[in-house]
Amino acid sequence: MSQYYLYESGHFAPLMAGMLWVFSGAAVGGECWLDIYDQGDYRGAHRRIEGPAELPSLKDLDGEDWGHRIESLKVGKAAEVTAFRQEGFREEPKGPVNHPEAFARWGKQEIPAYQELEISFGPGKQEHHLGELDFHRNINSLKIRCK
Q1: Would the pLDDT of 88 be above 70?
Q2: pTM of the model
């Protein structure tokens, strides 16, 4: 078994690995979440999603369709979030390309849908309006990892 130490009152006290896991789990337990809102500036309808979680679709989140609905969000201090434009965490581009004639003039033969398909938010991150990141009402699947 691994040996870890806790510094307390000027002394190092040995901890068993199991005790360390309990302490770290307690710290994560209340801080691994994602708050989503259907209006900017953290207003409107709200849901808290506890992590860890992988949601391949937001169509039935607590009985409501949250696909194409999220406008602002807050990430818990022990969470990391990856949001995807498409359901099922897919990363294949789809949809029309902006300015295809410009790409053609640059000699591009195959033109992908030119947009980011996923975005990540670190611990404690707050986004008051996802439109500033071009993800306004455009999140359809989520992964939440606990640190």
Answers
A1: yes
A2: 0.67
